[in-house]
Amino acid sequence: MAPIPTPSAEPQDNPDTYVGLEASGAEQRARERGWSTVRSLPPGAMITMEYLSGRLNFEVSDGVVKRCWKG
Predict the structure, then answer these.
(1) Where are the beta strands (DSSP E) in the chain?
(2) Each residue of 15-41: pLDDT tens digit?
(3) CA nearest neighbour of 26 among 71, 64, 52, 70
(4) Per its UniProt entry, which superkingdom is the organism in (predicted)?
(5) How many CB atoms lie within 10 A of CB 64?
(6) φ/ψ of residue 38, rounded to 5
(7) Can you give the C-alpha Rg of the chain in angstroms?
(8) In the chain, count of helices (H) and strands (E)?
(9) Strand partners, 37
(10) What gap in Å lies between CA 2 and CA 51, rounded to an integer?
């Protein structure tokens, strides 16, 4: 049986620091800080609820990050 993979460590970064930033700049900053996946979503988007280590989610309205969370 194959071993269960160990998830990579998430960047030591506070998602709240992205709120209020312009979306493309926030995405670039997140990638520079080590997030492997950055997902931009419109308000109220239907999404799956699985947690993906290393992913940062942005809720974007009018080109600005309104909410940000890990996973």
Answers:
(1) 37-41, 55-61, 64-70
(2) 999 999 999 999 999 999 999 999 999
(3) 64
(4) Bacteria
(5) 14
(6) -125, 125
(7) 13
(8) 1, 3
(9) 55
(10) 22
Euclidean distance between CA atoms 24 and 2, whole angstroms? 39
Q: Tell me how far apart the alpha carbons of residues 16 and 47 are, in angstroms, rounded to a whole number.
A: 20
For tokens 């960047």, the residue is 11
Q: What φ, ψ does residue 25 adopt, rounded to 5°?
A: -65, -40
Q: Alpha-carbon distance 60 to 39, whole Å? A: 10
What domains lie within the chain, and their CATH numbers? 15-70 (3.30.10.10)
**pTM flag (> 0.70):** yes
CB 59 within 8 A of CB 66: yes
Query: How many residues belong to the chain?
Result: 71
